[in-house]
Amino acid sequence: MNIAVCDDQLDYLNLIKKKLIECFHEPEMELNVYTFSTIQEMLYSTKFRCYEFAFIEMKVENDRGIEAAYRLRELNRACQVVFISDQYYHIHEAFAVKAREYLLKPINTKQFQSVFDYLMDWYLHQNVKFVIPIRELGRKRIFDVDEIKYFETYYNDLEIVTVDDQRFMTHVKNRYKLRPVLKSRWFMQVNQSVLVNMKCIDFLTDRNVILKSREVFPTSRKTLIQNHLLFEKFLKEKEEKEKLRNGEK
């Protein structure tokens, strides 16, 4: 999990990073907290990584926190913003940009822990927390959405294949948790059994979906036109995102 913190007050920048590390209690996940004292530094960093959450000070660079959030969401669509401020007067603007939370300074430790626990519960629910029996490790396996290349159902089993070609088996009932989450994050239902990450698709034909890894899946005729339109929309958004990253209009 990657979290960005943007505040031009160095003491708060370090304090928030410290509290994030202290509040994080997910042994199956790795936490990376990146701190930025300028908006430009934070936005530029999206060329190299995606953020699950961003903690942004409202008054950063002369009250440019709202602007920073808008621009960050353009570049990192799935990032959830948490605003930090010493007063409430910006709260309506904050939720207009679909902020996930609003924290008041001075930061209370119990309040911060409560907010962070809520954020993690929301994130794990959205990003599919479900059990896969990995006997060698003896623990649960938590999947990040972008980690999944596709999943395929076989009778009572569900096989999840990751982008690095690891394969995990779980019960087929877990597909009902996966489908709505993945479809909202650029996954395509190519047929009754297979849901594919569009980031992994090379191209579509009138009969098949071909992945960059050269795996081929037959498409359902019922969703053929819909899937072609969906993939065109995905490619267009991807192109627009690249233009924004490169500073093009």
Could you name the key traits of this structure?
five-stranded parallel beta sheet; 249 residues; 13 strands; five-stranded antiparallel beta sheet; globular; alpha/beta
Description:
Helices cover 37% and strands 24% of the residues. The chain has 249 residues and is an alpha/beta fold. The longest helix has 22 residues, at 224-245. The two termini are 30 Å apart.
What is the straight-line distance between the termini?
Answer: 30 Å
Helix content: 25-40%
Q: Would you tell me the overall average pLDDT?
A: 86
Report strand %.
15-25%
> How many DSSP-defined strands?
13
Calculate Rg over CA atoms. Answer: 20 Å
Strand order of the largest sheet: 2-1-3-4-5
Which descriptor suits the 3D outline? Answer: globular
Strand-and-helix sequence, N→C? EHEHEHHEHEHEEEHEEEEEH
Please give the oligomerization state of what you see: single chain
**Which class of secondary structure composition applies to the elements?**
alpha/beta
Low-confidence parts: none
Major β-sheet annotation = 5 strands, parallel
Structure annotation, total helices: 8
